Amino acid sequence: MPYASVPDYSHMGIIARIPALYRAILIILFGIFAFDLMGVFVRILGEEFPIFQISALRNIFGVIPALLFVMASGSIAGLRRICTPYQIGLCAFRGLSVIFAQICYYTALSHIAFATATTLAFAGPMFITALSVPVLGHKVGFWRWSAVILGFIGVIVIMRPGADAFEFYAILPVLAAVGYAMASVTVRLFHSDVGSSEIQLVTQIFSLVFSVIMLFIFAEPLPVSGSTDWLKFLMVGICGGIGVLCLVTSYRLVEPGQIAPFEYLGIPISFILGYVFFSEAPFDQLIPGVFLIIGAGLIIVWRERHINAKKETGEAETS
Description:
Order of helices and strands: HHHHHHHHHHHHHH
Number of helices: 14
Mean pLDDT: 82
Shape: globular
Structural class: mainly alpha
Low-confidence stretches: 1-12
Helix content: over 70%
Oligomer: single chain
Largest sheet: none
Radius of gyration: 19 Å
Distance between the termini: 21 Å
Strand content: under 5%
């Protein structure tokens, strides 16, 4: 799905003079930090509140940045283009996929080391590649399938099934990666005249509705009495929303292959945050599996960049 036109920074002075690639790198790094910081607050809140309640309030507050994004991009009128049964159904499916991913990931954050949960969630590119075959009809060849297998081995090494250190909850961030991957892949099924901001807002609204329904079905919400807890919930929603907006904005500025590798800096960031907030340093569990996951992601990025270059020169290739 082609994104909307690149935002106009001419009114922003010195920012406009920064090359687009550097702006995109700074934005995506800020977004990654926002996502990891969201995880910190989720874990803290998970000690007291049900995961379903955290998800519901995250989506309530998450509507705010999504709505601001639509207003800033001037695409409120464009919401009419998405109001077809097919595309509304896609948004509903994406919203359900996001809720599934949130519940799995938030539960994992409450039970295993912070950096371990974050690292396992980086299996997403592998599942995006694999799901693109049945969902989008893409042809995936030797290199990208090799990357999928390599990354899967990395996940298995970290999870260590059959070992004394294995934890059932380590499966959950991998399932979360599947949910987020499905939401990412299905974006390409929307009509080309529908902008990313409209898709994000409508998907966020469905995520909100589904999360509230699941809260009252599977859990009993607890009262949020103190202003400190409300601030934490607000930070979960705002950080999550900012993270999404930063990723969308950065990928609109430049070719995805130029900045996708920087997403993996989220792993060392999660190490630092896990150590600072929770005194965790799970190096023994994550090494060497983390290097296999990162390597798999970089191979996929490299092949995508190579394929795009081939397309630009008019050559067809399956890889």
